[in-house]
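Bumping my old thread because nobody answered last time. Still need a sequence for this structure:
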């Protein structure tokens, strides 16, 4: 779809943003504030008008969608019984912020201060520490609980408490305190540690994606063009400069010249893919696909990091959870009626509560994150059979700072072919030890007296799983991604860095990368908020240069 306010071809663009996800939508709004600049946003997916995107509980259908979800799979994982893990990624305006669980967590202050330590400061006095990013977190946010030192209340991204909180989620909060965790009312405040309800990116009980927050208010601007269903093929390079973008719409080959900058915001999977298809990347990887090396940059696609997750599921004594069992249907119907007032079960993000806890005796920082789901969740919700049969609940636990590193590669020189995803989960032995701590923490918390009032029995992994060997076997068979890939075009000055501190690609003029791929290391939490802060800081850098 074309936004026809501009006739492409009449003018050369000042900015072409490739990717209409979390970062791309924010950049489109910020850069198009300057009415003298022509800005074009190119998105491979469709528009975000479908109601499933905006109804929070629509996430259940979006996980199964092929229209709004890239529905990718990793390479077989040698440490996970050769399984190929499912990686959902948003294929619509708003990107993954249009299909995710909307949990708003930024990570830990130490995550960003670590970035500042390893990156230092460049000639333009650009730093990436927590205090450097906090104004961007606050500036983009409208925190319904009110502004304070950590939050803003005048930004376009609405952050609110859930309007529907299941009794099982409330029980989880009590059980977490019985387990020894403090109750934490704000994971993005003074401290992250503790158990609490997640704040969510919603407005009035509906999803507040990046597209909703940033792009919708800017859509009327005459200097902003949005192209959807457009698959970028590669960048056009002249010597060491980008001068345009080749893309396809409905099978037609098109070209968009750019006088200013091309900004890749296609995410940690597709931004490195586009660079490599354009001849920018590791020499060997490009040669294997018959792509001429225009600019050797060995770090492109490397440094892939993700949060691996393990689940513990219980069958419930009663019927308090969310289910597809016929006994739940009257409550489900009531939820449909309640949603007319933007209340009720359809406003749930399913991952209603969680915790951040320290389990490594060598460190005081939380190293494990929980997501509590008041439903039986099996295989990302792709297997719904158990929810027709049972009521239950699931606690997902992930290791926040894994040591293992993987890469993104090419399957071919065809942009339509999905990139090769090789996260190398559990390649480092320390990560298995961390995953066992995650599993133990989830099982112990769900065995606390408050949860025992509701639970009938541990369904997975079950009582038979007791020894370390049992736990390792369970993790290898059942661990899954929780969808936080980052790092594949990392910032820095070392030989594996792809962009500098201004997010400009090393050795190529007029080209930046602005998305989760530039993170040097994975943040300790969900990644959307940090990605948006990166985009906000990038916009400030671009406008100021």
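Sorry it took so long. Here it is:
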């Amino acid at each position: 779809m074309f936004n026809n306010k501009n006739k492409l071809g009449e003018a050369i663009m000042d900015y072409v943003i490739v990717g209409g996800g979390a970062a791309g939508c924010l950049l489109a709004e910020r850069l198009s504030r300057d009415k003298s600049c022509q800005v074009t946003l190119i998105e491979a997916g469709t528009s975000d008008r479908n109601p499933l995107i905006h109804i929070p509980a629509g996430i259940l259908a979006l996980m199964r969608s092929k229209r709004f979800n890239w529905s990718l799979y990793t390479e077989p994982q040698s440490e996970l019984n050769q399984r190929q893990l499912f990686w959902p990624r948003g294929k619509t305006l708003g990107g993954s912020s249009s299909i995710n669980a909307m949990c708003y967590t930024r990570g830990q202050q130490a995550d960003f201060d670590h970035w500042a330590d390893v990156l230092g400061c460049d000639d333009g006095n650009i730093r990436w520490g927590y205090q450097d990013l906090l104004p961007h977190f606050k500036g983009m946010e409208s925190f319904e609980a009110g502004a304070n030192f950590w939050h803003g209340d005048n930004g376009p991204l609405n952050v609110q408490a859930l309007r529907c909180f299941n009794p099982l989620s409330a029980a989880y909060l009590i059980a977490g305190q019985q387990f020894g965790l403090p109750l934490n009312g704000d994971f993005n405040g003074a401290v992250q540690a503790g158990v609490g309800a997640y704040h969510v990116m919603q407005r009035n009980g509906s999803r507040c994606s990046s597209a909703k927050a940033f792009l919708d208010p800017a859509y009327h601007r005459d200097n902003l063009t949005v192209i959807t269903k457009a698959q970028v093929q590669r960048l056009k390079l002249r010597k060491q400069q980008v001068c345009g973008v080749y893309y396809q719409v409905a099978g037609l080959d098109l070209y968009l010249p750019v006088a200013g900058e091309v900004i890749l915001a296609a995410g940690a999977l597709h931004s490195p893919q586009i660079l490599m298809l354009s001849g920018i990347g590791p020499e060997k990887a490009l040669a294997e696909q018959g792509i001429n090396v225009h600019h050797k940059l060995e770090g492109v696609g490397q440094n892939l990091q993700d949060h691996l997750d393990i689940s513990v599921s219980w069958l419930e004594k009663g019927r308090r959870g969310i289910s597809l069992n016929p006994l739940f249907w009257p409550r489900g119907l009531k939820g449909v009626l309640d949603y007319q007032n933007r209340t009720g079960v359809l406003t749930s993000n399913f991952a209603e509560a969680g915790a951040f806890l320290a389990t490594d005796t060598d460190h005081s920082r939380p190293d494990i994150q929980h997501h509590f789901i008041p439903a039986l969740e099996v295989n990302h919700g792709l297997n719904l059979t158990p929810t027709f049969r049972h009521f239950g609940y699931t606690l997902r636990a992930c290791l926040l700072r894994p040591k293992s590193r993987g890469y993104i590669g090419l399957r071919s020189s065809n942009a339509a072919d999905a990139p090769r995803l090789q996260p190398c989960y559990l390649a480092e032995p320390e990560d298995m030890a961390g995953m066992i701590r995650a599993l133990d923490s989830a099982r112990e918390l769900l065995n606390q007296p408050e949860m025992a009032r509701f639970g009938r029995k541990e369904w997975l992994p079950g009582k038979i799983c007791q020894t370390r060997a049992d736990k390792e076997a369970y993790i290898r068979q059942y661990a899954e991604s929780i969808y936080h890939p980052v790092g594949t075009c990392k910032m820095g000055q070392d030989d594996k860095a792809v962009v500098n501190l201004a997010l400009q690609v090393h050795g190529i003029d007029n080209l930046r990368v602005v998305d989760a791929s530039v993170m040097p290391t994975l943040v300790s939490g969900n990644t959307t908020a940090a990605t948006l802060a990166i985009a906000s800081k990038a916009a400030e850098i671009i406008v100021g240069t």
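The first helix runs from residue 22 to 31. Let me know if any region looks off to you.
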